[in-house]
């Protein structure tokens, strides 16, 4: 009887952008042609790069870009935490709230009034309130204030090499080590 | 001439002069101890606690503690480095340190010390303070949400400029930097951009106007070298910044 063919274990990776700008995803894609190598060791699950709507039962790594600004962000983050073995806070927004957290300086009401009622050139001024639109949180929050985070990639955005190091390390079963130039906050 | 002696620094025998603090003696021997509120030209302040070391088994601030003969100092142990990292994370979570758009990014000592200590996240729940930015002065502005209360500007304005422009008031988490002018605004004070107090802020709290983002990324102070390499140069060439 033939022995079963052994495939190297593939890493199942899910990603999402919460209150993010998609810049971290773009930086991830800055691994350029190495994405071909990546495709040999990684399977993408739910991510803006695929058409999968929800996380599979067991996902290895969830890369989370962006902080939390509305209730849908919290729901998505909790889905990722429930299904992913490792949650990675990717980028300044996921780690500290980032630039969107500048709105924490102001009341939510004053932000909405400025955007939808008082700004010049607004037609039919009213604050949107359809049930389909997720309600905003009173403050933007980093993800570690809602779920446990296993790894972080600092930066705005983190360099492509930082993504590469993280995923390589997890595939090889070792702890990621970010070099000085790959560990920056700006 | 001051008496010489020796003490143990992370297991290495270093010389010291009588009356030197641990931080001074270590710096003279080319060993970096992380610090933010200390500069050699001012009396020590003791607020940042980053220079904490264990001297003969007890935690103490290296900027204040005099070296004694045969003293056994631990500095770069995992325990102490971990403790320092938590202190830096507290400073980050306490203020609004949005490095991505701060003009001091790459030249900021708080950020550089965080890099040095391997800090990657902020660990604590963020405070998100709401203090009013002061842009009243023609040549400088103050973002109070980035101030770490090192009081270097207070000391520089008082001891070098002899103007007493700055002070710290309030208690506990409410403690904050104040400007000594009738309106409380920098523009109404005796502050000048040529003051020593304009040069000493280690973070992005007191920053010059019209000088932002002049240095390309890659050429900023801490883009390529660790802040720990700075005190490893001869003390005569080092002003502590």
From TrEMBL, chain A:
Its cofactor is [3Fe-4S] cluster. Its EC number is 1.12.1.2. InterPro entries: Hydrogenase_assoc-protein (IPR051349), NADH_UbQ_OxRdtase-like_20kDa (IPR006137), NiFe_Hase_small_N_sf (IPR037024). Keywords: 3Fe-4S, Iron, Iron-sulfur, Metal-binding, Oxidoreductase. GO terms for molecular function: 3 iron, 4 sulfur cluster binding; hydrogen dehydrogenase activity. Gene3D superfamilies: NADH:ubiquinone oxidoreductase-like, 20kDa subunit (3.40.50.700). Pfam families: Oxidored_q6. Residues 21-170 form the NADH:ubiquinone oxidoreductase-like 20kDa subunit domain. It comes from the Bacteria. This is NAD-reducing hydrogenase small subunit. It comes from Niveibacterium umoris. The lineage of its organism: Bacteria, Pseudomonadati, Pseudomonadota, Betaproteobacteria, Rhodocyclales.
UniProtKB/TrEMBL annotation, chain B:
Residues 79-118 form the 4Fe-4S His(Cys)3-ligated-type domain. One of its GO terms (molecular function) is hydrogen dehydrogenase activity. It is found in: Membrane. One of its GO terms (cellular component) is membrane. It comes from the Bacteria. Its main location: membrane. It holds the Pfam family Fer2_4. SMART domains: NADH-G_4Fe-4S_3 (SM00929). The keyword Cytoplasm does not apply. Its EC number is 1.12.1.2. Its cofactor is [2Fe-2S] cluster; [4Fe-4S] cluster. Belongs to the complex I 75 kDa subunit family. This is [NiFe] hydrogenase diaphorase moiety small subunit. It comes from Niveibacterium umoris.
